[in-house]
Amino acid sequence: MPESIPPVDAEALARSRIVLDRLRVLAGDGGVLPFDRFMEVALYGKDVGFYERTRTPLGRTGDFYTAAHTTPLFAQTLAQRIRTIRRALGGSSVFWVVELGPGDGTLAEGVLRSLKDDPPGLEYILVERSDARLRETRDRLRTSSGSISVRTAASVGSLGAFRGVAIGNEFLDAQPARRLRWHDGEWHEVGVRVRDDRVESTELPVERAVPGRALPTPAGEPLTVEISPAAEGTVREVADHLVAGAAIFLDYGAEETELVRGHPDGTLAGVRDHRFLANPLDAPGTADLSTFVNFSRVRDVALASGLVPGPLRSQAETLGAWGYPALLDAAVRAAPTAESRVRVQMASKNLLFGFDRFRVLELAPPSSAAKLGAGPKEPSTDAGR
User: Fold this and answer.
1) What are the CB-based long-range contacts (under 8 Å, 24+) for 184-189?
2) What residues make up the domain containing 244?
């Protein structure tokens, strides 16, 4: 945790007051909202949510950075995996790369530069709900797409059936999540109460069903778990429209058993100016909010939707399997000076060790799974739950 809460500038505070006003209206006379409703407004509220700000929240000058910001080798390695998948499907003349939540476009830019000389038929589709981030991504991609067509879509569902690869890099963790807390022998819904110029945590009766996998059996109390109907809905939506290819989700998270054992207080985090907030509810709309991805639930949803999950692996292991070491060696050899070689190596170290909590799950329709050699190579630690 930081020694002090990162300061909030006057403009951000003004936006936060608007977020608070919207929360009050949604909460009504009771003044209370379930956590996922709060998270939806704080992150994606039209014109005022964290991701709707004009100033980018991503990159070293923003509030946090992703693996794509550490080194271009991340995007190059992902592009290599996309190329492998396309070849395995027979080099179809029509092949879409669908990126969910492209943010500031850094990953898209790197992937497009790597694929620009591939055979024709590639199309890159940006699925982004934030108008501000979409404008930022479009500006970034003006000179990097080459002959590859780039277009936008409001949702995966609006695309219709497609062949290709869907990418979700640090996407699922930022989807609105429900928080449920077990104590005194029963589950309670965690919500927020709007008070004057702040929000505070509170509890509500559990009135909404928890679909799919049952909540874990607590070994002790209290226990807080997070589930994201929005994230799970995205997996279903991809499954409904991806007829050939793969969906790749890269995010921080774990199997449910590990989350319950290692994070009994839950995994909610708030980040501003690259520092974790002592109170994630501080000044809503001015900080990123996220929860660890429960990959056990994601896998369950994928299976129920007709997709074949591959093994859940660390991001470093996955990048290694996709050819990262050879790309790193080539980048080091191509560096013109000793100083630039060190920069390449340090960026690589940050990627491989700074994202140690990140996992990668690849999902594929059955016909594609056979061609890609997909499917679990080892049993899930949550199997049979």
Assistant:
1) 184/221, 185/221, 187/215, 189/34, 189/35
2) 10-372
